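User: Continuing from earlier, I have the next pair ready.

Assistant: Great, send them over.

User: Here they are, in order.

Assistant: Folding the first of the pair now:
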Amino acid sequence: MKPIKGKRILEGVVLSDKMQKTIVVTVTMKISHPVYNRLVIKRKKYKVHDEEKKAKTGDRVRIIESKPLSKQKCFKLLEVVK
């Protein structure tokens, strides 16, 4: 799949692959705190559509934003990095 202009591409680690065609990916971001000027680590979990079940738990993956596929899924698997 080719990246599309205007779509967010995120990189994270697969936490779970127990669902059918869905994986849970945690994305970690380091953000500078606006007042204290220190790095703050923010983590967020995303449910990602994985049609071919390529990603396994512990894999590093790249995901891309897409149209809503269900109530909580609006990302698709772009590629397995490692």
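And the other member of the pair:
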Amino acid sequence: MPTSQSIYLQKYRNKAAWAIVILGILIRLPLLPLPLTYGSDTWRQADTASIAHHFGVNGFKILYPQINWGGNGPGYVEAEFQLYTFIVALFYGAFGEALWLGRLVSLLFTIPTFILFYLWARRVVGTRPSLLALAFFVISPLLIRYSVAYMPEATVIFFYVAALYFFQKWMDEQHKLSLFLASVSTSLAILIKPSSIHIGLLFALLAIQQYGGALAKRRVVWLAVVVSLLPGILWYWHARNLYLEYGNTFGVLSGGDSKFGSLSYWLSPSFYLSVAELEGKWVFSGTGVLLFTIGLIVAFKRRQLLPLFGIITIGFYYFIVARYAQAEWGIQYHVYAVPFAALAMGIGCDWLLTHKRHRIGAGIAVVSIVATVAGTAYLYSLMLRAEETPLTICARWVETLVPEENRIIVSTDSLSLDQGIPNNYQDPTIFFYSHRYGWSLPADWHSPDRVEGFRQSGANYFVIYSKSLYDGSPQLAAYLESRSEQVGPGVAAGCGIYHFKH
């Protein structure tokens, strides 16, 4: 029977958890009204926002997400299941279209994520380490960045953490409802981001540790696997058909892009160094790596293997998506590491603060906490500096000078093939902010024949913002000189707008 002292202590710790959650909300509020132009995420947020816009104006057809760079077609695109953008579109319907609403929806998903993470961590490691883990989770620079981004990362991490919590609850209590909720959460995470499927490896490791091979004989487990996977299989089959019919894709399964690793990545030291650098900066905020390492060792000695299994799973996942995992423009792929990193950091910090044999431990913990907070504060200050980019400025010119119903070709400095690997070169920024539609032209397609083909398909204007790319394409420059009139500020000013002479 709990004593009055233990009840009081639990109430105190619950209040501390709520204080951390409230702090996490407050530090994110100043980021809500900022433009969608931070770091490498500008084009991703523009594509996401364009899908939400089209849901709102074209009848909320959730099975048919649309983008602006689909040429002269409707722009239906192979994409992940668009739950997040659909919810944003509903907000648009209620309050009017405003980009900060997309950030707000991400924040609304993040708040219950904090709570579920704390409940999960408390089940795994107890109350005191879980409070510290919650604090590290809340101030992780990567989680701050994406918890208010106009992107589905906050949504997917909510369902990911929910799956972790309900699966652990099922492991502890064996209630079928918990397993069902874990399966539904896993299913939604996979629908929103197919890369979430790696969570299945973690669940398998945990189940084998506790039950061995006997678990494979239970029908309820196989039913849970079906619930987790079947909706995603059906959706991505449908999404692939959209690509085959309309030719537009984000590279989810078909065409367009490849995020997968290969032997060349796995054998390259630069891959490991790049991943470590991104993790150290965005997940651990520098000195958090020390707390994390201590936490892993302590957890292993205590036979608390979940943090270790989590890191093994994330490491395997990085091998699969190596091309994106090693690049700054793929930093969102690291968001899955935050729950496991924060959990181990909480264990390590708690051990340093309470281990009687090492009086210096408390000092190390305090210094590490201060340094981690300082690292987060620095990255947070960068997030606050978001401002308009040259592309958004050019988009305003396009919106002003190009009649609304005219189709455009937009030059990009991305390649259709990156070192022989298919690449998503379509930059939606000018399309989205100008509210225009048309074709995206990769840097390795800058030839008169390519542009003429798009012109004959209905393009009325060509937009190019890179002077070096223009100067490096003399045949295209000569074609534009003879077949069009430059009506914009000009390539030297970062926005050449060429009106074709039909």
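Worth noting for the second one:
The chain has a mean pLDDT of 92. The two ends are 86 Å apart (CA to CA).
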